[in-house]
Amino acid sequence: RFARSSAWSAPPDANVLIYGESGTGKEMIAREIHNLSDRCDKPMIKINCLAIPRELFESEFFGHARGSFTGAVKNRIGYFQAADGGTLFLDEVGEIPIYLQSKLLRVLQEGEYQRVGEETVRKVNVRIISATNRNMHAEIQSGHGRRRHLRPFFPHRPFVPTSHLQPMQPIRLCEHRMKTLATLVVLGLLLAAAAPARAVEPAELAGRIQKKYATLTAFSAEFTQSIRNAASGDTERRSGSFLFKKPVLVRWETVKPEKELLVVGKDAVWDWFEEDREAYRYSVAEVISSKTMLRFLTGKANLTEDFLVVPGKPEEAGPGQAVLQLAPREPEPGLVMAKVWVDLATDMIARIYIQDFYANTNDLTLTGVVANPKLADTLFAFTPPKDAKVHDNAPAKERDLK
């Protein structure tokens, strides 16, 4: 909303300076301003001004001709030419020295520049969006900045307010990502941000989730399960492993001989029994035993409204771990409590414990590790026996998957 209001209030081609403290999302706002402008179909080139050596400033921004200096073995275009027709985002613009600011003045005022080692004047049409965490006005007054050089940066100057984080704010900020990244891996990342032992800024958390999900090939977990029959009082123990792979799909391979495979999709669970080779279909609600938990895992739940997330007991956590408890705010049959152990060094789930009372007592403990991609391909290439049967109430799409 802030980015949209900034984009709408700024003239279409006006240069913009975004001011705000580190971690407040200035680059995200710049990207949104670009996307909402008429230049959205053109490139947006991001430049970290702090990382450009002073002696290479002109070459980086304007380009150079072959032989113009030692090491210039070929012609090179600069940032302005690369962003022609689009947007040039200057991050940390306040770090540009005064004498170098003057070199940008001609481009900002006249829209023209010269490559290093050339006399040809080139035209360029670029919109400048810059960002800084420094008080530029105060620096102008103190002599560290020069008004006539910095004036082109200031036609529109949105200020990004600082967010004094509360433990649950990262979860509120990243809730929308659950709609597309609804896996237990993301659950662990979100809960890790709420741990008092590690304060995480929202922008950093969002970026880490996006990056980890993009590079994570698969997520496997070992489990032990105890199921007590409420009628007979008998207890059955199971152990095995399951695997997450994009899109959200789980295949569960048990170590017991009478069980072959359990496949978990968003809508159904299949179970193959050795004795009759018949596939029984269960709804996820019966397996998860909680509609609220199901809504959470599919990205439809509001974490702060539907769940109570509190830190676990410190003595329950291992070295470098945080323990958090997740429970529905409104009592319902099914989920009683979920505990998540998060490795603070890697932001990966170390263990998940889910306790529910849907029909039976069902204590489920999961230990997660990153799976070998070859193992993932092997599991997902599994073909069930030809004589395996499917209940008639299973949809055709699910039969094909099975």
Automatic annotation (TrEMBL):
GO-annotated biological processes: regulation of DNA-templated transcription
One Pfam family linked to the record: Sigma54_activat
Domain Sigma-54 factor interaction as annotated: residue spans: 1-169
Classification via InterPro entries: AAA+_ATPase, LolA/LolB/LppX, OM_lipoprot_carrier_LolA-like, P-loop_NTPase, Sigma_54_int, Sigma_54_int_dom_ATP-bd_1, Sigma_54_int_dom_ATP-bd_2
GO molecular function: ATP binding
PROSITE patterns in alphabetical order: SIGMA54_INTERACT_1, SIGMA54_INTERACT_2, SIGMA54_INTERACT_4
Keyword entries, A-Z: ATP-binding, Nucleotide-binding, Signal
Protein name stated in the entry: Sigma-54 interacting regulator
UniProt source species: Desulfovibrio sp. U5L
